[in-house]
């Protein structure tokens, strides 16, 4: 992180620590045991990719139990705590899992029959500022754990979050290990050092803004901005406007996606998206436009920057991130609770991308995806909060874009989740 950014962040955190404007979370601590929580999520997962043009299909079917045990904070000016997160899994039946991120593989390419991963963490809290060290599942726009597979991606390091000023949340962290969802090695991505920093500010109930930065050593520097505004129209309808953008500069040692330059010292990309969502009762309709600029496509996951660090609307099976690509989306969502089936939700979307540059081939490649997802969550009884999610993507690309990205694919994902609370 540049010295100027370090200094700015330090000033902000110090100001927050001495300028608290609302109640302290630590002052309400009940104790290490009294505030503890524990739960397990049993997940049965199925992922199938039906590849076209003679490419081998990939399928995986497995069962896991994801556990989290989290203590409360001890009482006092500074509170201390600890926790454990992890998963234990086994495959179901035969698996052809290459390339879908579901199940770890032995050196000979065969799938593991059973495996376990995870780690612990310690934490401390002063006022409304919390620092934790150990294993994390990250939800930061520039460094996000992949949670779209059977089990999540883990990062190891230190993370600090401060909410000393009402409406303002500051984040800073440093991570030195990155473990993908289908890896046994706790540093399977061979992360050297990833430093993150950022701030989110809620002006009022309608307007929220945020900025986050990432410095992944010898890989890339990335910056993210977002503004989200909600406009009420009447009692049960409204509009939501959202603007998001990433700017990335790659180091010479980094890998990049869909590059059209041979100058390894000057690879950069800016991708931005604007969406408008209309909500009325149980219905919502979203229109989104996304555009990529620079001499390479947006890249994530191959430079120790998190396999889900793309907080943009046009992201399903494809993320529509090709070099110079423009894409547009129409999405519709309905909550069937108003129609007598509480807990049932359906989302459908169509995204079309065009003007994709493929080096030495074309400036006008295209891709498109038709997406559907149905999710049902049990609302009461012994199975309360259990859910079944069925997702399907129909993806097609022009001939020039087949080798450079996903390739024509029909994908199914089915997740059966059963959460159990210990205490």
TrEMBL record:
Domain of life: Bacteria
Keywords, ordered alphabetically: Signal, Transport
Signal peptide range: 1-23
GO cellular component: membrane
GO MF annotation, one: porin activity
Pfam families listed in its UniProt record: OprD
Family: Belongs to the outer membrane porin (Opr) (TC 1.B.25) family.
Name listed for the protein in its UniProt record: Porin D
